[in-house]
Specification:
alpha+beta; nine-stranded antiparallel beta sheet
Amino acid sequence: MKRPARTPISLASFLVVLLAVAGSAHATASGSRQARIAAAADAAVAAGVPGVVVYSRLGNQTTLLARGVDNLETERPMTTADRFRIGSVTKTFVATLIMQLVQERKLALDDSIDKQLPGLVPNGASITIRQLLTHTSGLPDYFSNKRIYAPYLNGNLTYVWPHRTIVRLSTRDKPLFAPGTPGRWAYSNTGYYILGLTIEHVTGHTLARELSTRIFEPLHLSSTTLPSTPALPARYAHGYTPVGQKLHDITHISPSILWAAGGIVSTPRDVAVFQRALFQGRLVSLPLVRQMQTTQIVIPGSRGRQSMGIGLFERRFACAAGWGHGGDLPGFTTNAYSSPNARRQMVVAVNAGEEGELTPGARDALARLVDIAYC
C-alpha cells in the first residue's frame, strides 16, 4: 500500500512550533516557581507569621505576592502595596549615599570620624568611615545601652532622642576592640548613626532629604520614605512582637531610635528596584559597586557562610550566594538579597519579629521561604 505523501514543513512553520513548545515550557516553569513560593508563604503564615509579602525575580520572571493579614485586629488581608519598616536594610541605602560622596570626592573611605565630625566620638581620630561601614570599628551598639532604651521599655514608644545624643551615650561605653583589629567584627548600629551625621555634615542637608533627592525620587520609589514621626504612610502593615503569650502591635515607634541604622519604610518591590539600580551601576559607578561587593571580613562564627562588604552582607543560600542585607526590629523582619548583577533577586518582608522572637516553627518556615524565593 502506498503511503500518502507528507506535507512539507517550512522553516518558518518549524520555528513557530519550536517557539510554542519553548513558551509552554517557560510558562510551566514560571508557574511552578510561583506555586512553590506561594506554598512556602502559606506555610510561613500557617506557622504563626501574621503576614508576608514576597518579591522574587529571576531574569525577566517576577513573582510578587502577599499572604496573611496586615492587621490582626481587623484581619485585613496583606497586599503587595503594604509598607513595612525595613530595619537594617536601611544601612545599604546609607552606605550608597556614602559611596556617592566618595565618588564626588567629598570624603574618602579612609577619612577618620574626627576629620568630618571632630570631637564627637572618643578615639575618633583612629576610626575610619570604612570601619563604620563594615562594623570593624569596635564601637559598642546603642541597642545594648539600657539608658537609651529605658523610655521605650517603660512604655513611652514615641520618646524622641536627638541623634547626636544617642551617639554620645553609646560611645561612653567601653569599646569592644581597637578599631580595625584583624579578624574582629561587631555589629554596631551606632556606627551608622555616625554615618548619617557625616552625610548631613558633608551635604548640609538632612539625611531624609539626601535619601529622597539622590535615591527615592530618581528611582521613583513612591512607597519609600525616612519618616520623622511615628506614623507610617498608608497603606502599611502593622508590626507585631510577642509580649507574654500575645502579639503586641508595636507599629508606631519613635523613628529617632531607628534613623540611619534602620528607619526607612518601604515595600519589597521598591527595595528590589533600589538594589537592582545599585548593582547595575545606576547609583554609583560599577567599580565602587564592586568595592561594596568585595569581602572586607568573614563574619566570625558563620563557618565561612557569611561575609561583610561595604554596607552589604554576602550570604550563601541553597543555590547561590547573594549580596544584600537583613532587617530585624521589633514588629518587622525583612530579607533583601540579589546576585552581584541583580539578575536574581529576593525580598521577603513579614510583620513580625525580630527573627529571634519568632517561634522555632515560624523561623524555620521563614528560612525555607527565603531560600525558595531566592533560588
